[in-house]
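Notes to self, Protein BTN1:
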Amino acid sequence: MTTWLCVSPETTILTVNGLVFLNLVFYFLMERKHSNSTEGAQQATYKGVTYEKIPEGSNTDASSDPVLTRDVKLKALKEICPSMMCVVISLMSEFLVMEAVITTYAFPNSPFPPRDHYQYYINLFLLGELIGRSYLAVVSFVKEELVPKLMVRKLWALTIIEVCILIFCLLATWYRFLPDITTLLLLSFLGGLIIGIIYANVLQVFTESYEFPLREFVLGFVAFAVGIGVFAASLLGLVVEPLFRQHCLTTTDLAEYCFTKTDPNGASNVTSSCHK
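result:
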C-alpha cells in the first residue's frame, strides 16, 4: 500500500492491524461447517437401560487416555523424521531464496523501480503459499471424497524441486544471465505454492496416520520444523545477502539494481514521489 498506492505508513499499519479480525471470520466459517456436519446426527438414548447402583469406591472411569511412554514417543519421532527433514530443507531453501538471494537481483528493463522488485517477489510468493496451504480445504468444501486423491504423500519430491529452485536462483543472481524479471516472478510463485502444499499435506498425512494422543504429539513437531527451517535460512542469509550484493556492486555499474528492498535509512522518503 505504501509503495504502490502512496498510502502513508501510519494508515497502512492501521489497515493491516484490522485484518486480524479475518481470523474470527474464517473460524466462524470452519465452525459452522463442523456444526452442519454433526447436525441431525442420531443422539444416544438410555431409556431402555436398567439402573444399577455402583458400589462405593469403584472406578467409574471406563476408559482412560493412553499414556505416551518414552519409547512410544521416540518411535514416533523416528517415523516422522524424514517428513520433518523435508519440511526443514524446503523452508530453508525457499526462505533463503526470498530473503537473501533474489533480494539482490533487479532488472533495468522492468516497468517499476528497483525497490519495488521485492514487493512483487514476496507478494507472488505469499499468493502461492496461500493457494498451496488452502487447496485441500477448498477441495473438501467442494467434494470431500477428492481430498485423499489430491494429497501429496511423497514430500521428498517437492523438496527436491525447492532445492532446484534455490540452486537456479543462486546461479542466476550470481551470474545475472536472466533477460528480465519474468522467470523470478514465476519461481517466486512456484516456490510459495510448493511450500504451502508441503505444509498442508504433512499435517493431513500425520492426522490420518496417528491416533490420539500420539497424533497431537507429532503434529506439534510440524511447527517446530517450520521454525528450524526459517531460522536456518535467516542465519545463512546474514552471510549470503551481503556476499551477493557486494558481488553485484563489483560486476555492474548500476548499484541501485543490487538491492530490491527499501532502504531502512530512507523509509521516510518512500512516499515522497507521491507528493511531487
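- The CA atoms of residues 114 and 260 lie 5 Å apart.
- The mean pLDDT is 79.
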